[in-house]
Amino acid sequence: MTLETILFILFAGIAATTSVLMITRSNIVIAALFLILNFGALAGLYLLLNAQFLAVTQVIVYAGAIMVLFLFVIMLLKPEHERSIYKIPGMKIFAFAIAFLVFVQLAYLILFSSSSEKVSPDVQASINAGTIETIGRELFTNYILPFEAAGFLLLAATIGALILAKKKIE
Amino acid sequence: MILEYLPILAVFGFAIVFALATVFSSEIFGPKRPNAEKLSTYESGMKPVGTTSERVSIKYYLIAMLFIIFDLEVVFIYPWAVQFKKLFNQQGISVFVSMVIFLVVLELGYLYVYKKGGFKWD
Fold first, then answer.
1. Domain range annotation of chain B
2. Do A46 and A91 belong together in one domain?
3. Nearest chain B CA: its distance from A78 CA (Å)
4. What is the pLDDT of residue A84?
5. Are A91 and A14 in the same domain?
6. In terms of domains, do A126 and A139 share one?
7. A89 and A140 co-located in one domain
């Protein structure tokens, strides 16, 4: 077994276990903490797929910033008094049907897809696409306008957040 | 390629071992003589009021949102910092200017929040 295989089994195992633990917790804050572990394991999987920048972004943005927002929203809304989704009749059967369909689809893809040994040239070319060097070069040469536009998008988000949260309630 | 990241995995491994070892060694070796007073909730020496699941103020939401925005800024600066030397040799000062424009746009937002009292706690 190569090192990649061992690490894949490790990260995939953590990701699967924590996602199951997350959806079965009754305390929603603990569920959110398991989601952080899940994001961390996903970052490891991205790294194994040569997507270094995506792995770093996954940790900084998802495990860092998005989870802060999740936890704050949980504390702002006090969700213990929300009514359970299973109170709606037929919801459990509907959820099982959807989950079963997704399972069949994934199993079909894994079992019956053609596994060719040779790597196609497109895949070979895209192996270096996920490195930070490539993304930095592309972002500051070909995609400089979208990059500056992202600055304005973040500016709009800053002002929007301030106006929403600072509104005086009479 | 993947071997370059092994030290990071080692750090994670040591962190997990250290955290578990400190928590469980105090659990194993610490003497336990509990009484009702010791087991009661300790809250800064005050009698605890209410439950832990109180709704928090909306002011925290603004802090969280601003954190996310400036966190995303880092995501853009990171590839720029990695490639800066190479791009500076190729294109000269324009690489620096493009990042300054980006940062100025974001700092406008920062100044706006500062002026409107977004960092004040009242």
1. 2-39, 58-115
2. yes
3. 6
4. 62
5. yes
6. no
7. no
Each residue of B7-32: pLDDT tens digit?
988 998 999 999 999 999 988 998 88
User: What domain range is A157 assigned to?
Assistant: 131-170
Name the closest residue on chain A to residue B80, using Cα atoms: A136
Specify the pLDDT at position A111.
86
Give tens-digit pLDDT for B57-89: 777 888 888 888 888 888 999 999 988 898 888
**Chain B residues inside the 8 Å CB shell of A141:** 87, 91
Taking CB atoms and an 8 Å cutoff, what residues of chain A touch B75?
Answer: 57, 60-61
Q: Could you tell me if A109 and A146 lie in one domain? A: no
Distance of residue B30 Cα from the nearest chain A Cα, in angstroms: 27
Report residues of chain A scoring pLDDT below 50: 170
| Spatial distance between the Cα atoms of B57 and B91, rounded to a whole number of angstroms | 49
**Cβ–Cβ below 8 Å for B105 and A155:** yes
Residue B3 pLDDT > 80: no
